[in-house]
Fold:
Amino acid sequence: MSRLEERLDALYAIGGGPGANRVGYTPAEDQAHELAAGWMREAGLEVEVDTHRNLVGRLRGEDPEQPEVWAGSHLDSVPQGGRYDGALGVVGAIEALERLGRRRRTLAAVAFRDEERGCAGSRGLVSTGRLPGAWVELHHEQGPRLALADAPLGIVTGIVGYKRGTKVFEGRAGHAGTTPMDARDDALVAAAEEILRLRDVARSIEGAVATVGAIEVEPGAANVIPGRVQLAVDVRAPDAERLTRLIAEAGLDGTGRTEPVAMSDIVRAALRAEVEARGLPVVELASGAGHDAGILATAGVASGMLFVRGLNGGVSHSPDELAGDADVALAVDVLIDAVGRLAAT
Structure:
């Protein structure tokens, strides 16, 4: 087993129970950060914990006036999460800096706090204004597209925008046994029809998705016709035009939406050059999930992401999350050389 795999196993074991259990700003996430800090020190990095408790391990460059190049991800997880989500990007970044050694620019391996619940760590960093010049994030794809394309790696073009909202349906509660079917005003039936409509709306817009992830039914008894139903709706699209259309057709309020963000041409070019140098297919795709890279890109940092192929149908946020050892090793090699390219500019 490689050192990289051993470190992923060590992080995955934190929290106990099936799967990763390192919710942000809990003792389990603290333990993961302490473990990663030790690996950073072993690699000869200068370790800093900032005011938002993000972990930064620096390798000072020959020209300290040049903007820094950072790589990393996050160490928190959803409850019963996967082995690779976030953790791969952090251990890969530490490996990269140890193998690269001193470069012209200062390099840093970074573990942001509490990404899963809204990117608290990277948002906190942005609020301080202490931003790097470039950011590269290695991540499990969390989907099946690379596997379907028979490609081990993918270069992210951008991160989708999204809008979350609620939809409420009012009906009339009544006795489940004595109210005839043609005399009912069933709020759950109306909500079910809306769920199917949202599915069809998303299918009609290329690259869009719509999800109803939670349903609250009142009164909530098996023998009572539902009188009120609330749906939690999440809609996402890869660019502003399609997001606007999706929100409108979904019947959601457009305020408070999170805008799509493009990845940097400079970072994408560095990743593409390394993928091409290995004779691999260049697959470019948008990320349907949010990431710290999106927060940094929105703040003006030249940001990019490299996806590694997800196996098991691309499942993520689950103990069934899987990536091949050979794919992971390849992804780390590409990350190392891409960071080296950026550090030399």
In short: The first strand starts at residue 46 and ends at 49. The chain has a mean pLDDT of 96. The CA atoms of residues 22 and 163 lie 26 Å apart. The chain is about 35% helix and 25% strand.
